[in-house]
Design a protein that fits this description.
An eight-stranded mixed β-sheet has the order 1-2-3-4-5-6-8-7, with helices on both faces. By secondary structure, it is of the alpha+beta class. The chain is globular. Strand 1 and strand 2 form a beta hairpin. The protein is built from four helices and eight strands. Helix 3 crosses helix 4.
């Protein structure tokens, strides 16, 4: 398990899947904002569940996020779109509603940075998020990500176009947090 100050990132367990499906995927507004594609219902147990134990997509590493204090499942984190030639990847975080607003997101991003830069030897990490996703923007900037641009009206979400913000962090600019 990868450990931060408050959270751990571990492999996805079978018992995580129904919790994540119910709390994250079945929240239509949350999934529509986070997934980058229209929400659609998925039957529990379907092979197309978005929260599989192992992700067959090359360049994608899914984690379950647990609270270190009690081991409680609190969300998901993903390193995705890994480009081994350019040594870059993207980060994604999704927290259960009960875990939001407690500083976990900042810690998750820090652990993903450690994983990307130290464990994987990447040079660049990138985050794309909706411009009104204040918690993710805050977590990213607290970890040293720099706002590199705005993709105006680039995301169709729940009947309206929204701006997307692009943030980047280079290995040489990363300031690792004290590790637990």
């Amino acid at each position: 398990m990868l450990r931060g100050g408050k959270v751990g990132l571990r492999a996805r367990h079978a018992e995580d899947i129904p919790v994540l499906h119910g709390a994250l995927h079945d929240d239509v507004a949350n999934t529509s904002r986070a997934a980058g594609r229209p929400w659609r219902p998925i039957t529990p147990g379907s092979p197309t569940l978005p929260f599989a134990e192992d992700d067959p997509e090359p360049g994608r590493v899914p984690f379950s996020v647990v609270e270190l204090a009690g081991g409680t499942l609190i969300g998901v984190a993903t390193l995705w779109g890994t480009d081994t030639h350019h040594r870059s990847a993207h980060l994604g975080v999704g927290l259960l509603p009960s875990a939001r607003g407690k500083g976990y997101g900042t810690d998750v991003v820090a652990v993903l940075c450690h994983y990307g830069f130290v464990e994987r030897g990447l040079h660049r990490l990138q985050i794309e998020t909706l411009a009104d996703n204040t918690p993710m923007l805050r977590s990213a900037t607290r970890n040293g990500f720099v706002r590199e641009g705005v993709l105006r009206s680039s995301s169709w979400v729940l009947g309206e176009f929204l701006d997307e913000v692009l943030l980047g962090l280079l290995a040489e600019d990363w300031q690792p947090a004290a590790r637990g």
